[in-house]
Amino acid sequence: MVGMPPSRIVRAITIAFGAAAAAGAAQLGIGYGLGVFSWVPTVNGVDEAAWLASLAWTVWISATSVVIGTVAADRLGLASVGLTPLGRTMWRGTLAIAASLGGLIVVALTAVPARATQRPDTFAPQMIVGTYAVAGVIFGLVVALIAVNIPAIASNVTITSAWLWLVAVVATLDGAAANRDPEVVQLGVWQVTTSGPWFHSIYVPGSLLAAGSAIVIGALAAWPAANRGTNLIGVALSGAAGPAVIAGAYLLAAPVLKGVKPEQLSAHLVAPYAVIAGLIGSVLVAALAGAGRRRLAGRSANYKQPGAVSAAQPKVASDAV
Known about the structure:
Elements (H helix, E strand, L loop, with lengths): L5 H29 L13 H29 L8 H19 L1 H7 L13 H23 L3 H27 L20 E2 L2 E2 H24 L4 H6 L3 H13 L8 H43 L17
Antiparallel strand pairs: 1-2
């Protein structure tokens, strides 16, 4: 980072911190406003499914906020084109740390409302919620360090985040239109029907939606990067990024599935398969891009080869007629 103007360094770090804090606050505002997740006890007492769903949302929001802040600062802040590889890594690490500090706003905005939660297994639920938010920030720091260096992964996480919120809003509006009692929305899951169909412990419509969206997003996020000529390994792996963050959020929320209710269990079981589905989408795009590059390279090689066209030799006076 030697030689960088101090004013631009401060600007980029401020963008990282502010964008992460704004992303976290905005997502929590939407979630609280629509009732996507809540820490307030229901009239029926403690709802374990709502508690686990809210914890998963907490991890997801804190993690994605860090990623958004880091990528935004890298794109809008000080350009790292002229830096050495080590300098670029250090600079992007600095941005990720600044974004992590901004993402800590999620800790306060979730732990304080969580004081209203009534849990039989703890007298300080706000400490549990705050710990999950911090874990999400750390998780997001790791993802951000990867995403800021691989554009396809950054795109995948961003598009996945937008998709999850679209699903959450649609699920909330669907429940209101059907005059159902307000309830929290599972991360990335829309319970289209109340009666199934179910396959063992898996809710089939929700699993198809999760897998199908992962494939489509994996392909869409990978396509621009593949066409720009970037490294195809990163493109191929990018499809797993967003679904992996979702799976990580579910894993942190419930490391052990014992006692998890059926309506919540399906989402936990499907999340790892969504990672594979996302990989399918991005790997297909990478394979198509690789084939296209090989064809283009072959054509270029053919154009560079000298033509095997024989030219007529002029006759001279000494030649025999």
